[in-house]
Amino acid sequence: MGTANFAALRQAKTIEPLIRSHPQQSNKSGKALPPLQEYYGEPEKLDAWLQQAQVRIQIDYSNCSELVKFWALSACLRGEALERMDAWTREYGTEDQATVRIFFDQMRFVFQDPQSKERAQRKLESLRQGNRSFLDTYMEWQGLIIEAGGAS
């Protein structure tokens, strides 16, 4: 059995009882909300995944302990993300250390492209409307501001 398969099996046995004990939340119409998305380790998808995961944890796991939230997030990791985070999650996935904040901080440290903020800042400095509509330019500006770390 390969390291990745062993890690996935170990993680499934650890997390599955916690996840199954957590009821699926519903919105006002009674329809179930979609589950947390899986993350495979692509740096360009990290910010979107972190944002979505943060909202899902706040909504679906509001009454759960930090440990359950930590392992629910860890259960979404697949492929390279799982391989790169496995040893760390085993080390920090304990009652006294596991928090959502520390999980998100580690995800940023491991997967965030260190030059992405600099590239976004350079694009902001050279952004021009040209022949584009104001709305298109504004939407690009807003995305670059977020990518550059200027808005939370």
Oligomeric description of these chains? single chain
Question: DSSP strand (E) fraction?
Answer: under 5%
Topology pattern, helix = H, strand = E? HHHHHHH
What would you report as the Rg, rounded to the nearest angstrom?
18 Å
What is the 3D shape?
A: elongated
Number of strands: 0
Q: pLDDT under 50 segments (min length 5)?
A: 1-9, 23-27
Ends: how far apart? 42 Å
The helix/strand class is: mainly alpha
Helix content: 55-70%
Could you report the average pLDDT, rounded to the nearest whole number? Answer: 82
Number of helices: 7
Task: Walk me through this protein's architecture.
- The chain has 152 residues and is an all-alpha fold.
- Helix content is 61%, strand content 0%.
- The chain has helices spanning 3-20, 46-60, 66-74, 79-92, 100-111, 116-126, 134-147.
- Helix 1 (3-20) crosses helix 4 (79-92) and helix 6 (116-126) runs antiparallel to helix 7 (134-147).
- The longest helix has 18 residues, at 3-20.
- Mean pLDDT is 82; it is low at 1-9 and 23-27.
Q: TL;DR of this structure?
A:
With 152 residues, this protein is mainly alpha-helical. The chain has helices at residues 3-20, 46-60, 66-74, 79-92, 100-111, 116-126, 134-147.
Helix and strand layout, with pairings?
Elements: H1 3-20, H2 46-60, H3 66-74, H4 79-92, H5 100-111, H6 116-126, H7 134-147
Helix pairs in contact: 1-3, 1-4, 2-5, 4-5, 6-7
